[in-house]
Amino acid sequence: MLNAQQKAAVTYTDGPLLVLAGAGSGKTRVIIQKIVHLIEQRHYPAPHIYAVTFTNKAAQEMKHRIQHILPAERRRGLKIATFHTLGLHILKQTPTLCDLHRGFSIMDSEDCLGLIQTFLPPARKRDREDLFRIQQQIFIWKNALLTPEAVSKNSLSEESLEILSLFQRYQDTLRTYNAVDFDDLIGLPVTMLQKHPDVLARWRQKIRHLLIDEYQDSNQAQYQLVTLLVGEQGAFTAVGDDSQSIYAWRGAKPENLSHLARDFPTLKCIKLEQNYRSTGRILQAANQLITHNTSLYEKRLWSELGPGDLIRVLCCKDGQDEAEQVIADLISHRLRHGQSYNHYAILYRGNHQARLFENVLRLQGIPYRITGGDSWFARTEIKDMLAYMRLLCNIQDDTAFLRVFNTPKRGIGATTLETLSKYARQKGQSLYVCAGHLAFLSQIHDKSRQAMENFLGWFNALRVRRQQEPIIPVLQEMVKTMGYETHLYDLHDTSMKAQKCMENVWDLILWVERLLEKKPEHDLSDILNTLMLIDIMDQSNHSDQEAVQLMTLHASKGLEFPFVYLSGMEEELLPHRASIEADQIEEERRLAYVGITRAQRLLTLSLAKQRRRGGELHQCTPSRFLDELPEDNLEWYGRSVATPEQSLARAKSHLAGLKELLK
DNA sequence: TGGGGTGATATTTTT
DNA sequence: TATCACCCCA
Predict the structure, then answer these.
(1) What is the mean pLDDT of chain A?
(2) Does residue A604 come out as left (phi exceeding 0), alpha (psi in the -120 to 50 range) or beta?
(3) Which pTM was predicted?
(4) Secondary structure (DSSP) of A434-480
(5) Which long-range contacts (CB under 8 A, 24 or more apart) does A58-61 make?
(6) Which of A305, A324, A303, A325 is CA-nearest to residue A313?
(7) Strand C closer than 7 Å to the CB of A248?
(8) Helix H or strand E encompassing A548
């Protein structure tokens, strides 16, 4: 059953609609029901409805839920995807209008960073901070939809001027590689649609209603894309909550919520304030915390679920102790209440905090699942394989070539590569293409030439087969003949590791195969691009074997769990140090808000008195956010403020204990 | 192949 | 400090 506001949001189709939905107010439900309403009641054909989310997980969840409501034939052609996937769809329709060709590659942030690195003089290559600053600036420009030319019109500092020239070179290189980065997936469609009204008209016809989840996370470029696609009449439903805006660092503009009212005068706005998720005390705590922020939209969440339990605060000695206490508590709680492990979540600010918990969980033999952290694609063997596949599809992709040409080692060294780079730059063609030129081959030593010719012969044969045969056997053949397994055994000191890597390689092939089965009309390059945007782990996560969930606060948004442990409630960690310095406490507070509102029935906060950070042992102060919670709702454990005497006494007794043990 | 030692390096969040 | 890549030796 829907409440009055939810129902209004679902059935309103007269114009642009903004739904301000507090945490746990049934936001996703509204989107799903609205899709159903559009199809069933308003007879929109499913292919004309597009729902966009920001994370794969959210998209996945939505697809999953709609499967249970709409029969397959009714939802055929319905699009539920991330913003970046939408951008990819648009690019794929008309790549040439964006200066791309069919089969273009997507490069991830790491690839892009590596690319920028190649532009810098060797002396600067090692300065990570420098590198990061450059990437960040380029990212900011791209998200403001600025071209290098546009940027150059402003007066710039010397440093910015230098970054600008790198930006220019970066963009040019991507285009010659026939590649795009993540930001291009949004930016290129926007500029293209602005320039080509006919294409825009086609897309407007195709997308008769656009639904956008977590609208507060959209950035400038994404806002532009939305306004273009929905046209003046504004056939869209945007759902968002400014209190849950936690992606400002990635360019998200929560102001986009209010910009909608400015750009669409007929915008209707509906607030959802009834929370169906959490018990009263948890909700009160969240409400009170967020009042310390200046928010764009006033709202007050309320719940009918009763007050529920107190929020517990576990004060721990250090990070290790925190992990042990939390997990001990979890174990006993589970036993006492006969709960299953997947009803528990441990949340934290940064991925590195997962380690301590992971260790203890493993020690206790408790099943757990970590979301986020290093993705599959960060693994070397996966990146290697993807590079091979990318090159197979797109021989312009020099980044892929650079990875491929000497992995495994083929006796083609730095000198040869340098000669090749020079030659290729002169010719203005890709490395792979040039590598086959006689004019180049004659310039290098016999041994290198032999190696290069062998490699090219082998790879070209694969490319020919790719055109004519089913792709999977070709890929399998490639893996078997490329000598990668031997390379792995050389690389790793244990055969165990090498075997594991090889398994990953075969898993990847398996994934490609499965994706192909699911979408038979796709070719390898489509699959590759899909893989770049979807983390394999997201999908395998669907195996719902029971396990405790570990994830960052960011990753937890949109999810809910009966029992939540929110760890690391300390200054410099939950308001993160960098955010304190950058004066971005409000975003951190929203992050805490997101964490608290994940809990349905029981929330446990934990903090450590000291924590090792880098080399040093760091004394921690409890998070200021703890002071901002209603004290009556909190129940403290172990809050003995240790005076020096107490510490001394504790140390003595500890020592005595040790002596006892030694006897 | 596997064990152990050394030295460098990291610490915010993600498509 | 803890981990990881890397290297050497058995």
Answers:
(1) 87
(2) beta
(3) 0.85
(4) HHT-HHHHTTS-HHHHHHHHHHHHHHHHHHHHHHHS-HHHHHHHHHH
(5) A58/A28, A58/A82, A58/A213, A58/A214, A58/A558, A59/A85, A60/A538, A60/A539, A60/A542, A61/A28, A61/A558
(6) A325
(7) no
(8) strand A548-552
Protein CA A379 to sugar C1' C4 (Å): 14
Cα dihedral angle (A128, A131, A132, A134), rounded to 10 degrees?
160
Cα separations in angstroms, A155 against A161, A165, A439? 9, 14, 45
Evaluate if residue A121 carries a pLDDT over 70: yes
- Rounded distance, CA A643 to CA A651, Å? 12
Tell me, in Å, how far CA of A493 is from C1' of B3? Answer: 10
Q: How far apart are CA A13 and CA A15, in angstroms?
A: 6
Residue A383 reports pLDDT greater than 70: yes
pLDDT digits (tens, 9 = 90+) for A473-483: 999 999 888 88
CA distance A415 to A445: 10
**Closest-lying nucleotide for A573 based on CA to C1':** B12
- Stretch A582-598: mean pLDDT, rounded? 93
Residue A663 — pLDDT band, cuts 50, 70, 90?
A: very low
Q: Is the dihedral of CA A546, A547, A552, A553 positive or negative?
A: positive
What is the phi/psi pair of residue A602, to 5°? -140, 130
The tens digit of pLDDT for each residue in A156-186 reads: 788 788 889 999 999 988 988 889 999 999 9
Structure tokens at A272: 């959802």
Closest CA relative to residue A282, chosen from A590, A573, A25, A593: A593
Mean pLDDT of A569-586: 90
Amino acid at A458: W
Q: What's the length of chain A?
A: 663
Cβ(A279)–Cβ(A254) below 8 Å: no
Radius of gyration of chain A (CA): 27
DSSP string, A500-541: HHHHHHHHHHHHHHHHHHH-TT--HHHHHHHHHHS-HHHHHT
A612 touches strand C (CB under 7 A): yes
Rounded distance, CA A45 to CA A78, Å?
8
* CA–CA separation, A7 and A379 (whole Å): 46
- Average pLDDT over every residue of A43-61: 90
State the Cα–Cα distance between residues A330 and A196, nearest whole angstrom: 57
Instruction: Please tell me whether any atom of strand C lies within 7 Å of the Cβ of A617.
Output: yes
The whole-angstrom separation of Cα A255 and Cα A297 is: 11
What gap in Å lies between CA A220 and CA A140, rounded to an integer? Answer: 10
Whether A277 contacts A560, CB under 8 Å = yes
Q: Please give the Cα distance from A10 to A2 (Å, whole number).
A: 9
d(CA A598, CA A278): 8
CA torsion sign for A457, A462, A463, A468 is: positive
A499 C-beta less than 7 Å away from strand B? no
Q: Enter the DSSP assignment of A153.
A: T
Active site residues of A: 27-28, 213-214, 244, 598
